[in-house]
């Protein structure tokens, strides 16, 4: 309810410098969300909008989960904060044990952060430090991939491959190179699931190994399915091939599972879905159902063990955040896990993937649609750009969808879908039905 102290519609939008937003455009015609429950947001003008993006790929169990809210309320009343440097509190130990029990292979230790960006920078630092503690400090190079998104820290934008996110920020990290991306409309347009063509693109890592000398390369980081660049499922066999090349040359493989973690593909993590175990894995977002910010980095046993040498009174890794393992985040994480497991949300994506795929590919043949791609409960539709006006068509479709009651996300010429995992078939039909109507209406 609007009160004088807390107006429903702020009357001064100027002071908040909004992230990743066209501020002037937004402030001229704002889109404010004031309420959320399950699959829907309510807007400031009282309309229901279906959440086709799980917020920002993060509200996996749907909005307003009472159990999580109450767990956070109980936790804040009991222990609002405790340092995790040389001190501890019970919840993150339990959370780490429960999370690592879900992971494939010997990924068995968790380092907590507060976001995906922090998870990525932490993972890169662990990779560099790991080689150094083993006496291979000459491995300083980090390899990312074109069109990769790994958050906005300097490490993340350095290994990331989205030009707009890099070009304003100077020299970035040195010693970074990129393998080529896997998006190829000539071979893979309208692929259902993993494209058949393109496993050989993983050999680009071998090219960089030969260029730089493997003894200089610490790690290679990829998103198993690139999300923010417009949902790019990996070609069949591609990730296995990357794993083999890394193994041959002592390079750590990092999977950035900030989006794919916590059930997005119909398995707890993409590593399990693809049957490829990375050495380090990052996550965030769905970890707490986005109720309280939290991220984590998982490492294989051998990596943690390599640090556990030297005098036992010495700090082994000089890294951490004031809010690493924050009590409220840990409480939210534990309760989100309860919900995911009890409601079968880690595997629900597998049951719905076929229906979701058919609905998404129903957009094929509509005006200006040049590609539809999908995996699990992620999908994207790519449009031909308007001549001389890049991204204008996608932006207009995004806006019209919002006005017609659907929240999607647009990146470049692409609109993406990533609904909460509680989505039902009727929601899926409505989502793609709205999108189809809008695509037909927007020239
Ligand atoms: C794969 C990946 N890594 C990292 C991030 C950054 O996460 P955050 O925005 O929580 O810093 C994102 C965010 O979308 C992501 O998709």
Architecture overview:
The protein is α/β, with parallel strands linked by helices and 443 residues long. It has 2 domains: 23-61 and 344-441, Aspartate Aminotransferase, domain 1; 69-342, 3-Layer(aba) Sandwich (Aspartate Aminotransferase, domain 2), CATH 3.40.640.10. It contains 16 helices and 15 strands. The chain has helices at residues 23-28, 54-57, 66-78, 90-100, 116-133, 154-159, 163-166, 185-188, 203-212, 238-249, 270-274, 301-307, 327-342, 345-361, 392-403, 425-441, and strands spanning 33-37, 40-43, 48-51, 107-113, 141-145, 176-179, 217-222, 252-256, 280-283, 295-300, 369-375, 378-383, 406-407, 409-411, 414-417. The strands form 3 sheets. Strands 4-10-9-8-7-5-6 form a 7-stranded mixed beta sheet, with helices on both faces. A 4-stranded mixed beta sheet has the order 1-2-3-13. A hairpin with a 2-residue loop joins strand 1 and strand 2 (40-43). The longest helix is centred in the first third of the chain and has 18 residues, at 116-133. The protein starts with 22 loop residues before the first helix and ends with a helix. Bound molecules: pyridoxal-5'-phosphate (PLP). Residues 115-117, 120, 149-151, 223, 227-228, 256, 258-259, 284 line the site of pyridoxal-5'-phosphate. Pyridoxal-5'-phosphate is lined by residues 115-117, 120, 149-151, 223, 227-228, 256, 258-259, 284.
Superfamily (CATH H level) name of the largest domain: Type I PLP-dependent aspartate aminotransferase-like (Major domain)
CA-atom Rg in angstroms: 22 Å
How confident overall, as mean pLDDT?
Answer: 97
The largest beta-sheet arranges its strands as 4-10-9-8-7-5-6
Distinct small molecules:
pyridoxal-5'-phosphate
The gross shape turns out to be globular
Number of helices: 16
Please describe the biggest sheet, giving its number of strands, its sense, and whether it closes into a barrel.
7 strands, mixed
